Amino acid sequence: MQTRLADFIKDTPEGREADEILRSCVHCGFCLATCPTYQLLGDELDSPRGRIYLMKQMFEGEPVTHRTQLHLDRCLTCRACETACPSGVRYGRLVDIGRGIVEQQVGRGAPARAIRYALRRTLPEAGVFASLFKLGQTLRPLLPGRLKDAVPAPPPGAAGDWPPARHARRMLVLEGCVQPTLAPGINAAAARVLDRLGISLITVPDAGCCGAVSYHLNAQHEGLDHMRRNVDAWWPYVSGEERKGGEGMGRGAEAIVMTASGCGVTVKEYGHLLRHDPAYAARAARISELSRDISEVLAMEAGPLAARLARRRDGVRASKLAFHSPCTLQHGLRIRGMVERILDEAGFELTHVPDAHLCCGSAGTYSILQPELSQRLLRNKVEALESGAPVRIATANIGCMMHLRSGASRPVDHWIELLDERLADASAG
Predict the structure, then answer these.
(1) Domain at 419, CATH number
(2) How buried is 310 (Cβ within 10 angstroms: 0-12 exposed, 13-18 middle, 19+ buried)?
(3) Distance (Å, rounded) from C-alpha 235 to C-alpha 44?
(4) Is residue 343 domain-shared with residue 277, that is, in the same domain?
(5) Same-domain status, 30 and 136
(6) What is the structure's pLDDT at 137?
(7) Residues 77 and 31 in one domain
(8) In this structure, are 121 and 214 located in the same domain?
């Protein structure tokens, strides 16, 4: 694609990156067949190719309207188009740049700004979110139907024990922002699974939101600040340097484990997003190198894990299970089939899920900001997941899990919790 960028952007880092991405697009249209919003709306401006044309016009200095903003807002950033693209167009990065520019040029009305500000002040702040969640649970019985449905049900059961840090091999885990409140059992289950394999999983109190919420709400500088805070928090643990107070860290952590694929895909991009910051570029790149989805860690420990699973009781086999692979896992991190292989090895009977590449409609804050489209995608996804008559549904991201729970008739859990249950059965046997 030929480009002629306007003066306001052509000599900026974002402009140079956008120009490179635009030039890689060959207009083939393969992306249309995989785009959830194009399938729902049938408007090419709600497809990756159409949005690329809109962004190209904007970068070249053409007038920008709220209509342009609407089409970009409707994008889920699911990145299914990147998986389908034969030219390797980095559409997700391009749409981040484009949204930032359109926000500057056309702005938003006061109600929209207020909603986005509230989301940035609550979701990334674990303590604030936990307090609001408790308040919502207290008031839930008094709320009318729609508002009551918007307040998630309390987490089922307790998180369970977190094993002590007793192994020479150590890995860090990102606690995140909403997951500790909505599903505290996920990281605890991951810690127990890794403990059985001789690895201690450690939390770092000063690490928090990965930065995705703010960054994808067009508060990029705020999102980058979240990323810098995490780099600072993790660095003593991965470098072996001394912590405050004089406690030596010794050997650095082997990896930074992600149990939410949405956070994982963002942390994997720290090195790229902070590459122009001389104070953080090298450390951010190292953090991205060390970031591992929990499935990647277990795949590297396949032998010991298989030995553990082989001890399960004779005749114990799980009922049918449907696995929803989040967009951030299969399209963002490009991890496909890995979780399914682990679950199969654990004895779960996985059902076929039609259109497994399509988004469930959660997409971070999308379910809040685009509720109508999100609900249509949710209904389609639940129908696909339940078409094989599974007893349970599993996924790999907290946002997908909570979204699916709101529409599914079967229990929905994180897959690492199911694996932890299976390993506990194996130990008991």
Answers:
(1) 3.40.50.1860
(2) exposed
(3) 45
(4) no
(5) no
(6) 81
(7) yes
(8) no
In a domain, 156, yes or no: no
- Are 247 and 362 in a shared domain? no
In the block, tokens 């990102």 appear at 174
What is the average pLDDT value for the chain, to the nearest integer? 91
Query: Closest Cα partner for 190 from 413, 350, 403?
Result: 413
256 and 330 share one domain: no
User: Is 304 inside any structural domain?
Assistant: no
Amino acid letter, residue 49:
R
Between the alpha carbon of residue 71 and those of residues 45, 66, 85, 396, the distances in Å are: 6, 9, 20, 28
The pTM of this model reads: 0.91
Is the pLDDT assigned to residue 347 strictly greater than 70?
yes
Give Cα separations from 19 to 9, 24, 44 (angstroms): 10, 9, 22
Question: Can you give the CATH number for the domain in which 27 is found?
Answer: 1.10.1060.10
User: Which residue(s) pair with 392 in the sheet?
Assistant: 321
187: domain range?
A: 169-298
Q: Domain for residue 1, yes or no?
A: no
Q: Is 307 contained in some domain?
A: no
Q: Residue 320 contacts by C-beta under 8 Å, 6 or more apart in sequence? A: 349, 350, 351, 388, 389, 390, 391
pLDDT tens readout for residues 255-295: 999 999 999 999 999 999 999 999 999 999 999 999 999 99
For residue 49, how many other CB atoms are within 10 A of its CB? 21
